[in-house]
Design a protein that fits this description.
Blueprint: H1 2-11, H2 14-32, H3 38-45, H4 54-78, H5 88-99, H6 103-136, H7 141-153, H8 163-177, E1 180-181, E2 188-189, H9 203-219, H10 240-262, H11 268-282, H12 295-310, H13 312-317, H14 324-335, H15 342-347, H16 349-372, H17 374-380, H18 385-404, H19 407-425, H20 430-453, H21 465-496
Antiparallel strand pairs: 1-2
Helix pairs in contact: 1-16, 2-4, 2-16, 3-4, 3-9, 3-14, 4-5, 4-6, 4-12, 4-14, 4-16, 5-6, 5-12, 6-10, 6-12, 6-16, 7-20, 7-21, 8-20, 9-18, 9-19, 9-20, 10-11, 10-12, 11-12, 14-20, 18-19
């Protein structure tokens, strides 16, 4: 309880609250603009937060993450173009409701269910963190190594066309992470006599290039895309009668989204799809789905915002990102001198609860914005891409240079942007590469420490029950795509007979 009070005390300063609300506004704007995304905005924001203290910096990014998930529903409802991938399921019934002349009602349903899902997951967060802390006390370098290997194996289930592509992308990230001087032996690797490479590749310009510049290049061919736009006049809150009818759908989707968010590498998109499917499964009016039914809006919206809060649990408590956005928040934590995972939750629990409080404020903030700002945000959707993307490129250049005041980082960003563009064109998601870059260094460092502890006897790793557990999880994670393929072929064979 003392850690909770200390954490909220760190948060409750006028400057911190202002930064959180600023993150909310940026998040909603980014979410409301098709083509932009929370990971892109967080990647651009990271270098500008270097001057801030860790609590306001991470709080602002966490608020942006929460609000960006909600903001995607605005364009999904008004122009049938989800501003963020998790809002794709919302468009299935949100846009038909808006076309019926009820855009305010659709936005009201999305707002209330989003806030409910977000707060639900944060309540689970505050109870889950102490439980994870008690387990984390048993962690030493061997346990960290096994945990990091398990996190890398989870790349197979992240976004992208195939598990194999994700693993390849993650392996490239691990390889990039080996550039520079090895911490244990002092040997230089892949530096090619370039002095800037002796310290390795900084992840901030890589993040900006992959997520911001890569997406800009990928969408450059659709600058003149036209959408049918519906202008909202005001958000209309659902009535108490309507909320009573929808309460089970909202609570069910909130619980489902929180669970999926806690699972490493699943994320809000999977939660939204499952929330929509479960809402339809339990509905008494299945035939109305796709025509503008309220259940088709609150189901995915409650689930994807609950997943956003749930994804912060493994990110902060175990150091395993629950989504692409939390992978960037994990990188920001490292940049600010924190070591995410059991050390963080054991040594600075008040920091964990400060982030929890920031996300709670963010949820209340985008509730107010969602209710009062529908008319304004409907106008944001009219900004042409030919004006939007030059601004993204400019901020990418400024952000990359300001991180280390080095033109070398700008070149790294530009090269990463081209790599990110090629990856997107060929179905390789950038998030696994980022996780490989971040987690690869942890794997190498903890493995070296473990070998020093065990006198280079690898087999002694298996003496720890926690290590054995994570290795078992790793095998299950890597084999899950094969089991899925086996079941698919078996089902096809049965249909053929």
């Amino acid at each position: 309880m003392e850690a909770v009070v200390q954490g909220l005390g760190l948060l409750l300063e006028p400057t911190n609250i202002a930064l959180i609300l600023g993150g909310v506004v940026i998040g909603v704007l980014v979410g409301a603009l098709p083509g932009l995304s929370s990971p892109m905005a967080i990647a651009l924001l990271i270098p500008f937060t270097i001057q801030f203290e860790p609590v306001p910096a991470i709080s602002m990014m966490a608020a942006l993450y929460c609000a960006g998930t909600f903001g995607g529903s605005i364009t999904a409802i008004l122009i049938n173009a989800p501003g963020a991938p998790p809002a794709a399921a919302t468009a299935l019934d949100g846009y038909p409701m808006a076309k019926k002349g009820q855009p305010g009602r659709a936005l009201g349903l999305a707002t209330v269910s989003s806030v409910t899902g977000g707060i639900f997951s944060l309540v689970i967060f505050i109870f889950a963190a102490p439980l994870l802390a008690s387990v984390a006390l048993e962690f030493r370098p061997p346990e960290y190594f096994a945990l990091a290997v398990f996190a890398l194996s989870m790349l197979a289930s992240m976004s992208g066309r195939s598990s194999l592509r994700n693993l390849i992308s993650g392996a490239v990230g691990v390889l990039i992470g080996t550039i520079g001087v090895h911490l244990t032996t002092g040997v230089e690797r892949f530096t090619f006599d370039i002095p800037e490479l002796t310290e390795g590749i900084h992840f901030v310009p890589v993040l900006i290039g992959l997520f911001a510049l890569g997406e800009m290049l990928n969408q450059s061919q659709a600058l003149d895309s036209a959408f049918e736009r519906i202008r909202a006049t005001a958000t209309k809150l659902p009535s108490l009668k309507e909320l009573k009818e929808l309460k089970y759908t909202i609570l069910r989707s909130s619980g489902l989204g929180t669970f999926i968010g806690i699972l490493p590498a699943e994320g809000s998109t999977v939660a939204a799809i499952m929330g929509y499917n479960e809402a339809k499964r339990w509905s008494k009016k299945k035939e109305e789905f796709g025509t503008g039914t309220p259940e088709g809006i609150v189901g995915p919206e409650a689930a994807n915002n609950a997943a956003a809060g749930g994804a912060m649990v493994p990110t902060l408590a175990l150091g395993i990102p629950g989504s692409g956005s939390t992978a960037l928040i994990l990188a920001a934590l490292i940049m600010h001198g924190f070591r995410p995972g059991p050390y963080l939750i054991n040594e600075t629990p008040e920091f964990i609860y400060a982030i929890f409080g920031a996300m709670m404020v963010a949820n209340i903030g985008f509730l107010a914005i969602g209710l009062a700002g529908a008319k304004v945000f409907s106008l944001v959707t009219f900004i042409p891409n030919r004006l939007l993307w030059p601004a993204v490129f400019t901020f990418s250049m400024i952000g990359s240079y300001s991180y280390g005041a080095s033109m070398f980082d700008v070149w790294v960003m530009l090269i990463s942007g081209i790599v990110g563009f090629l990856m997107l064109r060929h179905g390789f998601a950038p998030a696994p590469l980022v996780m490989g870059l971040i987690l690869g260094k942890l794997v190498e460092e903890t493995f070296s420490q473990s070998m020093i502890i065990y006198d280079n006897n690898f087999l002694r790793l298996f003496e720890s029950p926690i290590v054995l557990m994570f290795f078992a999880f790793t095998l299950l994670s890597l084999s899950s795509p094969l089991w899925g393929l086996f079941r698919q072929r078996r089902a096809t064979a049965k249909e053929g007979t």
